[in-house]
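Private note to self, pasted from the team thread so I don't lose it. Backbone tokens:
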């Protein structure tokens, strides 16, 4: 069974005659996904052990981790600017007692206080890591 059929089958509830039949179909489809993963796990492991694939994967994870550490340690937290952080130092140096509303600094502070900074940082780190891993792949690392 192809992966797309497994995905589509798990999302198709139109043929269920009752809620219990829909739940049973959902569980059956999930076990089919587990069986498909079990059948192809060895192939995946062999593919992942190739040096050039491993180089690209490692480049992605290392870049992602470094960018996340840098962005999360910037100092835009849920209670505002973290004391002693890079953001606090920049705010004191650049703005002093006045931080203009609507600027990038105020926006990042708002994102941090609303809890929206971490997802934005994850998206940014993922984009940077993807670019780096494409460059690693294009340069032929591990071949």
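Design output:
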């Amino acid at each position: 069974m192809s992966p797309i059929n497994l995905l589509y089958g798990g999302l198709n509830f139109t043929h269920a005659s009752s809620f219990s039949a829909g739940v049973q179909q959902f569980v059956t489809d999930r076990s089919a996904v587990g069986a498909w993963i079990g059948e192809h796990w060895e192939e995946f492991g062999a593919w992942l052990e190739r040096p050039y694939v491993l180089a690209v994967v490692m480049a992605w994870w290392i870049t992602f981790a470094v960018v996340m550490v840098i962005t999360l340690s910037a100092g835009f937290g849920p209670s505002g600017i973290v004391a002693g952080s890079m953001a606090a130092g920049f705010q004191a140096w650049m703005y002093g007692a006045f931080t203009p509303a609507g600027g990038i600094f105020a926006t990042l502070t708002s994102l941090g206080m609303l809890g929206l900074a971490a997802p934005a940082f994850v998206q940014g780190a993922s984009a940077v890591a993807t670019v780096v891993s494409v460059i690693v792949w294009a340069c032929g690392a591990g071949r």
